[in-house]
Amino acid sequence: APLLSSSDLDCFQALYLPGPQQCSAYARPLLAQQFAGLPAAFIALAQFDPLRDDGERYHQHLLAAGGQSQLYPGLGLVHGCLRARGLAPEVDALYSALLAYLE
């Protein structure tokens, strides 16, 4: 992805979680064993983001556990796109969808 690569993810994880024994579902929600009882979620993806597939899987886990989740596909967007509010119509559409969800 233009603003975040897979190797960047590895570096950030090493900074946040210095050892593999510290990795938990609190830091990486897909490691959770149970997804029932979680609050409703709005999951915004960015098409060009190494985290996109994780967001899709988290959405599917929530739905499979009987939870509520709304997925925003973020077509054409990159990781960090929220900084382009007012500069890109695709980002403004994402903000509109998020605000509508929160109403």
Integer-rounded radius of gyration: 15 Å
Which percent band covers the strand fraction?
A: 5-15%
Largest sheet report? 2 strands, parallel
N- to C-terminal distance? 31 Å
* Poorly predicted residue ranges: none
Q: Helix content range of the residues, please?
A: 25-40%
Number of domains: 1
Count of extended strands: 2
Q: Name the helix and strand elements from N-terminus to C-terminus, one letter apiece.
A: HEHEH
Assign an overall shape.
flat
Overall mean confidence score, pLDDT: 91
Q: How many distinct helices?
A: 3
- Class based on secondary structure composition and strand pairing: mainly alpha
Task: Give the strand line-up of the largest sheet.
Answer: 1-2
Topology at a glance:
Layout: H1 6-16, E1 41-44, H2 52-64, E2 69-72, H3 89-102
Parallel strand pairs: 1-2
Can you tell me about this structure?
There is one protein chain. The protein is mainly alpha-helical and 103 residues long. It has one domain. It has helices at 6-16, 52-64, 89-102; strands at residues 41-44, 69-72. Strands 1-2 form a two-stranded parallel ribbon. Helix 2 links the parallel strand 1 and strand 2.
